[in-house]
Amino acid sequence: xxxxxxxxxxxxxxxxxxxxxxxxxxxxxxxxxxxxxxxxxxxxxxxxxxxxxxxxxxxxxxxxxxxxxxxxxxxxxxxxxxxxxxxxxxxxxxxxxxxxxxxxxxxxxxxxxxxxxxxxxxxxxxxxxxxxxxxxxxxxxxxxx
Length: 145
Known about the structure:
- The protein has helices spanning 2-16, 21-31, 40-62, 65-69, 72-103, 114-130, 134-140.
- By secondary structure, the chain is mainly α.
- The protein has one domain (20-106, 123-140).
- Helix 3 packs parallel to helix 6.
- The longest helix is centred in the middle third of the chain and has 32 residues, at 72-103.
- The chain starts with a helix and ends in a 5-residue tail after the last helix.
- The relative contact order is 0.15.
- The model has no long low-confidence stretch (mean pLDDT 75).
């Protein structure tokens, strides 16, 4: 029993340790003024969303998603879909950066209402965490061979 708890703790720590986009977003939100939608509670919602997404990954792996994802046909189709998504995102963000640069000024975002901000935060964090293969690889112990 103790070794299972220690293994779970070490595994959880290894998944949580690498800094990534969620950590960066939490820091960014934490440093913003409350009037701009920042502060402790805003950063806390980002972290809570990431924890929720990690839990969903662990639940999916426990339910057998690891066996499904290790099939070559599934990995190839997921790779194609991921590549397409990354290309679409690259085009979207490049066009937005180009538009901002052509205007010659920084984009100023208006602070959305609390409920809209919370919904946007949850959607961004959950989709970010669920699109990563890192938790599946680490939790299942199988990796992407």
